[in-house]
Amino acid sequence: MKSSTVSLLALLLLFAVTPAQGQTHSDATREGAVLLAGGFAFSSQGYEHSDDRSTIVSIVPSVLAFVSPGFGLGADVSLSYIELVGSSSQTAIAIGPKAAYFFDSGSSTIPFLGAGAGYLSSFRGSGRAYTGYRLKIGGGLMLRKDHLGCIIEADYVLDTVEDVSSNTIMLTLGFAGLLY
Q1: What are the tens digits of pLDDT across the range 74-104?
Q2: Which CATH architecture group holds 2-16+24-179?
């Protein structure tokens, strides 16, 4: 599972850095533009060797600088509250780099694909911090009007903490500010 996720991330990045010839881009995704975004995510998480699921609510700010038309590099942060099976809960923070490609044809609806990796730290009621890493791949739509946008995104997230892996389908709805 981990090797297929890494392979998929590598293919996405390869595809993202080789844009189609002749593709038109709006100023919003041109080289030098910046995307500032913030979203609210809801997800359901499964665990290795278990049928149990947890509910997760997250705030997800990010920044992306376009280094070529449609292709941006940046950073993602995720602040999460996790309601675990039973009556316990935990909080988590994940931070790391991301890359995304926007299929911008000049219209107000712009589909995109993205991937990222990062450091993950979670805190349970005992106060002990558990650390690990996060891999994230997904895509969505940005509905844009001038310098503002609404983002709808779905991601597959693989978290590994203390040698235990969990998978999450994360749905995010948020807003974006475009600086160009």
Answers
A1: 999 999 998 877 667 889 999 999 999 999 9
A2: Beta Barrel (2.40)
